[in-house]
Design a protein that fits this description.
It is an enzyme of class 6 (ligase). The protein is an alpha/beta fold. It is built from 20 helices and 24 strands. Helix content is 35%, strand content 21%. α1 crosses α9. The longest helix has 17 residues.
Length: 597
């Protein structure tokens, strides 16, 4: 097994995740099989209990693991299926060591950070690295490890020490360290400054790790004299200093690496030059060029609770982009804070209220993503009602599906006090209820999580056709509440169709309005399995309906298994065509205050 470690210096948010994903992709294009590990030094056991404002979205894996969003980047770039153990946290490591101590596994020894914690980290990496993630039976050739945070952080010190020991254990030729750093340009002098990177590398070397390759983030390509200066002070060959400059499309990053022969530098360190081929990027290049050429717009109103941070809905944005490129449209997402649609906002902040409703009414489609808590719920209900009554394509995900059911109960069934027991435990008409197997005392890992099977109930429904007329589909879940099965017949008698159910027939998975151009809600999270070459069926249906292409899509048998499309990885921001740091997709985004973000 060969290992590539990606670390970051100077500041956070440089794009280590994109760099690690791109390195994995370029190695895969060289004919190697690749797996990935993300190390998060926080004390949480996993990302499941974190607020999206705190750490971005929680990405869910097939095995139910609630993990860092970077694992979503790995899965989308490499088209692999990772496990919960591919995300290492300080909490997991300390918990495993303390469990061993309680069992007496250390035979009376004093349990310390060195060697017990550091050994546990190394053992975890070696164990997980050999787990196949690409459908094959044998281990991968290369494991790409991303160390979260920034060199010098106190919380990452045990991992730095463990990785220093690990590089010595596996030996030269089996370990390559790539350090992602910042080369800023001060506006006053207009010169690329190397000192931050010099200090970062010096700090890394003082901790026992020596970088083989420098990946330098900058607004423009590095000047030759800057590379020479970095080489001199950081003890890295000029050929191993890669310039990661801002690009029009994040999918250009692997191409930038290829053009600078990054793969040759990595393969040389890992002694794989005689094994690997030249990277093949034909289709990838086509996708990238296509994404940049799109100009005909499609507008989607994203009505959510966490619209202040685009990373909260990263996978949803990716899925929308995969589908919009498949439909040959340029994606524009209008961020609509759900609470700004409510009547309270009309009194307290009429400008925000007016702007949010203008965004909603100007959209080609409406999407209500998942979420927790009661803030903004009434605004989401109003958005679903607007889409239903005005025949605007609508997609509700998880809570977005439950919202659509509540709205239908209030507007069509006449149950004005209908609600979810999550928001009103004493509602006389509980359309959505707490699942029997859930826990009301423990939050972490107690939801209905991971891949579950949905069986289609109606053969000629839009959802069945979108999924290729299959009898069932496996999708990833993350929820505590479900549609009340005792009210299903009442809904169906009123025209609402539950076209997908679980194996028991008691749990509702897909709902749609047959007489609406496109009104679908799903209890699962289809965004987690959307890929650039294989967009999610329900997302593709939403964009196709918004573009007037749904009928032709359904006649072709639904979502194709492979299309020429493109995706991005959340490290760029585009504002009126200008590339900025730390954002989301190749498109223009507006919030309810009329601000482009």
């Amino acid at each position: 097994m060969k290992y590539v470690l990606v670390t970051g210096g100077v500041v956070s948010g440089l794009g280590k995740g994109v760099t690690a994903s791109s390195i994995g992709l370029i190695l895969k294009s060289c004919g190697l099989r690749v797996t990935s590990i993300k190390i998060d030094p926080y004390l949480n056991t996993d990302a499941g209990t974190m607020s999206p404002f705190e750490h971005g979205e929680v990405f869910v894996l097939d095995d139910g693991g609630e993990v860092d969003l970077d694992l979503g980047n790995y899965e989308r770039f490499l088209d692999i299926k990772l496990t919960r153990d591919n995300n290492i946290t300080t909490g997991k490591i300390y918990q495993s060591v303390l469990d061993k101590e309680r069992r007496g596994d250390y035979l009376g020894k004093t349990v310390q950070v060195v060697p017990h914690i550091t050994d546990a980290i190394q053992e975890w990496i070696e164990r997980v690295a050999v787990i196949p993630v690409d459908g094959e039976d044998s281990p991968a050739d290369v494991c790409v490890i991303e160390l979260g945070g920034t060199i010098g952080d106190i919380e990452s010190m045990p991992f730095i020490e463990a990785l220093g020991q690990f590089s010595y254990r596996v030996g030269a030729g089996n370990f390559c360290l790539i350090h992602v750093s910042l080369v800023p340009v001060l506006n006053v002098v207009g010169e690329q400054k190397t000192k931050p990177t010099q200090h970062s590398v010096r700090g890394l070397r003082s901790l026992g790790l020596t970088p083989n390759i420098l990946a330098c983030r900058s607004t423009t390509g590095l000047d030759d004299n800057v590379k020479e200066k970095l080489s001199r002070f950081c003890h890295v060959p000029v050929d191993s200093i890669i310039s990661l400059y801002d690009a029009s499309n994040i999918w250009r990053v692997p191409l930038i690496l290829r053009d600078q022969k990054a793969h040759e530098a990595i393969l040389k360190v890992l002694n794989l030059k005689g094994v690997a081929r030249e990277p093949v990027f034909g289709e990838w290049t086509s996708r990238t060029e296509l994404c940049d050429r799109l100009h005909e717009p499609v507008r989607v109103a994203m009505v959510g609770k966490y619209t202040g941070l685009s990373d909260s809905y990263l996978s949803v944005l990716k899925a929308l982009l995969h589908s919009s490129v498949a439909c040959r449209r340029k994606l524009f997402v209008d961020w609509v804070p759900a609470s700004d649609l409510e009547n309270e906002t009309a009194k307290e902040n009429p400008e925000n209220y007016r702007n949010s409703w203008n965004l909603l009414k100007g959209a080609d489609a409406v999407l209500v993503p998942g979420g927790f808590g009661d803030r903004g719920v009434e605004g989401k209900i109003l958005a679903a009602k607007y889409a239903r009554e005005n025949r605007i394509p609508y997609l509700g995900i998880c809570l977005g599906m439950q919202i659509a059911v509540i709205e239908y109960a209030r507007s069509i069934l006449g149950l004005q006090d209908a609600n979810s027991t999550e928001f009103d435990p004493n509602t006389p008409n509980p359309c959505v209820i707490f699942m029997p197997e859930g826990s009301k005392t423990h939050m972490g890992g107690t939801m209905r999580l991971g891949s579950r099977r949905t069986y289609f109930q109606v053969k000629d429904s839009k959802s069945t056709k979108l999924f290729g007329n299959r009898s069932f589909v496996d999708e990833r879940h993350r929820h505590r509440y479900e549609v009340n099965p005792d009210m299903v017949q009442q809904f169906e008698d009123a025209g609402l169709s539950f076209t997908g159910k679980d194996e028991t027939g008691r749990r509702m998975e897909i709902v749609e309005l047959p007489n609406h151009p496109y009104f679908i809600g799903v209890q699962f999270h289809p965004e987690f399995k959307s890929r650039p070459g294989k967009p999610s069926a329900v997302f593709l249906g939403l964009i196709a309906a918004a573009c007037g292409q749904l009928d032709s899509l359904l006649k072709k048998g639904g979502a194709p298994t492979h299309v020429l499309s493109n995706g991005t990885s959340g490290e760029k921001f585009h504002r009126n065509g200008t590339t900025l740091a730390n954002g989301s997709l190749n498109g223009i985004y507006r919030n309810g205050n009329g601000v482009h973000v």
